[in-house]
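Same chain as my last thread, 577 residues:
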Amino acid sequence: MSGDRLSLLIIGGYGTFGGRLARLLGDEPRLRLLIAGRSLEKADDFVADLRAPKDGSEGLGSSNLGATLQAVRFDRDGDLAEQLMRLRPDLVIDASGPFQSFGDDPYKVVRACIGLGIDYADIADSTGFVAGFGGLDAAARAKGIFALSGLSSLPALSFAALDVMAPPFARIDRVAAGIAPSAHVKIGLNVVRAIASYAGRPVSLLRDGQPSTGLGLIEAMRVTVAPPGAVPLRSRTFLLVDAPDLALLPARLPTLQSSFTGVGTEPQPLQRLLSLAARLVHLKLLPSLLPFSPLLQRASHGFAIGEHRGGMFMRVSGIDAAGKSLTCGWHLIAEGDDGPFIPIAGVAALVRRLLQGIRPENGARPATGELQLAGFEAEFRRFSITTGIRVESEGACLPLYHRVLGSAFERLPPAIAAMHSVGHAGGTRVASGRARIERGGGWLAGIVARLIGFPPAGEDVPVTVRFVADGDKEIWTRDFGGKSFHSLQLEGKGRDRHLLTEVFGPFRVLVALVQEGNRLRLVVRGWRFFGVPLPLFLAPGGETYEEEREGRFHFHVEIGGRLTGLVVRYTGWLVVA
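reply #2:
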């Protein structure tokens, strides 16, 4: 360490990811952050912005708060030894890239660090760069330093999730991972260039247990990213991308039969156009998409529509110790602008370990298995980032709500869990209580209420709910003072995966089950009329939740819409007979 501070040189320190790393570590007083890039002016501007007070609070890196900040010029094509000796960092963090385009000597920065005995880490996601990193191991060990490559979403975070999911498996056959950036996140030109470099070209992967190739941005799989107890991302197609996991997984999993890494961007029609362009490259009608990188970047920025949410998944399938099929999926969702902090969370976790005196083993290697998932998730807690694991086991007969909620079901208050514990294979449960019913006054609301069979308004109305499990679905019959109506509930499939589907006559409503403290919220994510999808902004909405109060189950159901206004609202309590 330089004096009483750990000195970090962040190459690309004012860029998309380096800048976020500086913001994430900027409040740590034991750090000296050298914000580096080819433009000293841009580095100065970035440091000034970090130091500027915001929202009435003192700026990061000020005289009274956080790390020491310094803007420096650093050129990877210049005299590396001279620059490093002048700056004297304890750790060099390369957050620039694209690592796919580092030319004939891609490791020159790493070798310069090793030669001067300086520790090194990067967020590379280039398969060739990360997979070949071990060739520097002997030199790094001889100098007594560590050099870690790929401390990013793929492969460091994905392998950390894999390590958590692997223990129940006797054999892992298939692994798939993917990243789903928010459409509103401004993707950097370097990232676009990295993806464009292999569009329509062969990407090495495993197929049927043998080395094979797929076609970049052409081969695809559909996935719904859905951490247990959270509102899922909309189901989307992930296109094959070249990522280090594809090269590193076979050594980690000798029984592996197939592998896939993908990206699922929004809006999906724009992604389909990108895939079509990749096919033109494959057919040799276009030489490459690289020259179109600036246009692709502008298109991604110009069509920033839809929800401002992003995510990631890691799915593992195989056989458990009892010989039954088993699938585990780790899911992550980031809200708003928090997604781009995910690729640098691993570096932040590494730095915090160094500040605790915990050093990685000396040597140069890919960063797979270097950090535990808990280290990443500790960084995620500073943001609106939700993670969780879903388990699908052959022969598991779980109640409907347990299947949809996954592990979040175990966090439900006892009264709510008991209400939804009717058996999967068959069974009946009856609950009774009292309710208050309100009805909307509009003529269209009245038509909808009569069509479905909602009860009339009333105070302190006796209510009975009968739950009947029939295979993989449940039939709910609600009786309010002698006026009854029923609905069918089942688990969504395909595009509706991880959603609860409730059928009221000709209407089918898709609902996310969201566990929040002592409440279970029901959030409408789509609806259909006689199977025809309808616009979400016209969907029946309103505040709907279940909660436990003083050990008793309470419900609050509100159904209405833009066209109808309030249709019905009923609130009350139930006790299982």
